[in-house]
Specification:
Blueprint (H helix, E strand, L loop, with lengths): L2 H10 L5 E6 L5 H16 L3 E6 L17 E2 L4 H10 L2 E5 L12 H4 L5 E6 L10 E4 L6 H11 L8 H14 L10 H12 L4 H9 L4 H13 L1 E3 L4 E6 L1 H6 L10 H6 L6 E8 L4 E8 L5 H8 L3 E2 L3 E6 L3 H11 L4 H6 L2
Amino acid sequence: MNEVAFQELNQALSDPKKIVITTHRNPDGDAYGSSLGLYWFLNQLGHEVTIVSPNDCPGFLKWMPGQADIEIFESAPEKCTKILREAEMVFTLDYNAFHRLGEIMEPVMSTISPVFVMIDHHQEPDDFAQFSFVDPAMSSTSEMIYQFIQRMGKKELVEKNIATCLYAGILTDTGSFRFPATTSDTHRVVANLLERGANNSDIYNRIHDVNTYNRMQLLGKALNNMVVLERFHTAYITLSQNELNRYKFQRGDTEGFVNYALSLKNVMFAAIFIEDKKQKIIKISFRSVGDFSVNEFARQHFNGGGHINAAGGRSTLSLKETVNKFVDILPGLTDELTLSQ
C-alpha cells in the first residue's frame, strides 16, 4: 500500500464505521490472531466491529481474548449475511481470494460492495480490494497488523489483548519462530508485544500443550502410514476418514503432522493427505525446505496455494487416486528437487 492510499485509508478510519473483519475457512492461529488483534484495535478507535469467520476454530484457539464474540457464518448464515451486507468496510485478513472462504460464505462476499481492505502475506492476490497491504515476505498476517497499527501512529494503543492475539498469530505461523520468513524485524515486533503484556510461555502452552490420548494415537497412525520416496527426497502421510473416526478426530488434531515428514533426513518435500467425506474432498498440506515452491506446486496441481515453503490444496479424487496423482507428478520434478536439496 503506497503512502497516498494509506493516508486515504487512515482518513476513512478517522470516523466511526460499521466494520467487519473476515478470515479464511478453517482458521488457524494467524487467522484468528490477526483478526482479534485488529478487532481490539479498531474498537479502541470507536468503530462498531464484528468478526465473521466461515467456520469455527480448533479447540486450542478457544482461549484467545474475544474469540467467543466471533460470529460463525456456518452456524448463523442469515445473521452473518445481514452483518456483511450492512458493513461499510470489510477487512479480509490472511486470505487473498474469496474462494478461501468456502462455498457457503463466498457467494455473499462476492455480491456485497463495502470498502474492502486486504491485509495478507500470501502470493498472487485477487484484485477485489480498494486498499491492499500485501507482503509475501512477511512472517504472518499478525505481524502485518502490528506494522499497520504502527504505521497509523497508534502503537500506544497496543494493550495486552492486542499483544496476546498478535503474539499467538506470529508464534503459530512462524512454527515457533523457526521458519525462514522469521526475520530480525519479526523478533523486534515480538519483543514489543512482550513489553505490551503478551505472556509468551502461557501462550505457547495454551497452543501446543493440548494433546489428548486420541490425538496421540492418531499421530501414531499417521507416522505408521508415512511413506518415504528417497529418489525424490519426498515423504507423505495419509489419513483416511475411517482412521480419523477411529481416533475421534477433532478440528485441529492433525495440526503440525506434516512437519514430522519434513523433519526426516534428506527429505525436502512433504505432504499430508486427509480424507474429508463430509466435504467430499481430500485436504492436503505441503511443506518444503530450500527453494522448492510448494505454492507453485499446489496452484498447478491441487487447486491450492500459499507460501514458498508452506501451502495447501485439495482434491476431489479418492484418497488413493489423489496420492497416485501426487506420486506420478514427482518424476517430472527430479532435477528441481535435487537442485533444491
